[in-house]
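Work Package 3 (structural annotation) set out to generate three-dimensional models for the target panel prioritized at the project kickoff. During this period the team completed the workflow that converts sequence records into discrete structure tokens, so that structures can be stored uniformly alongside our sequence database. As a representative example, we reproduce one entry of 274 residues exactly as it appears in the project archive.
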Amino acid sequence: MEGSWSEAVALSKQLFAHSPEVQSSVLYAIGKQQFLEQLNRREYQNAFDFLKKRLKQLEAAAPHGELMKLSYMLTSSIQDVPEFADWEQTAGRRSLLMLIESLMAARPKPADVAQVPKARLVELLRQAVSYQVASACRHQQEPAPKVETLLHNFETPAVPGHCQHVFRDHGDNVKCVGFVGTSGIIASGCSDKLLRLWDTGTGKLLTALPGHTARIWDISSTSAGDLLATASGDETAKVETGRSYNKARLRNSNNNQPNQQPTKLIHKQTNQTT
């Protein structure tokens, strides 16, 4: 039962960090024993300072009226207070030790504490990127995404957390890609001069449309998806109407097979000089 009071306080803070209420009770019990021992050694000034600076802060954890009784001891003696008439230093330390041991036995078992998954730090770094993407992509009126606990993965509502489809049927390097309004179709322009339309639900190629004589550098669609424009290195820009790439018509007419022949398009061609 020998040792440093500062070490006892630090250890108690660590052991009972799970419950601030229990922690305060233990710290008060340790402080009370320390205060009584100071009085027993007649270190009245130290005891007064300790009561004012340390025990006063833990008054909420003290039994009702006990702090006033401890203050009274500064002008009398420990034994003048009936509740402490039989107090003795060794017995007081033994009682303090028994109190701490009983509270330690009541602590949550390790099985009741959430375990940190393996490689959690690496996963948290990936989750932080997802959080930043979701925060940057969210609309102004939407609330910021919340992270309830670091032990659960953050699920972003803005972008998928995994690759949904890979569109591989290109004849050369891809130069541009974009959604065709809200039709559920993605358009891609390629160096093989073809404009390809993809089904975002299945990932299948719906059709490959010729028309340019050089690589396609850029594509753009109206918000309604009724017009799709392409810009090519052949010094032309073409505008195609939504009737030519309606997803339902493509599925029925092509039976989900890529179409290398031009469909009935309405082209509005603009020649550009360089």
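Residues 163 and 248 are 25 Å apart (CA to CA).
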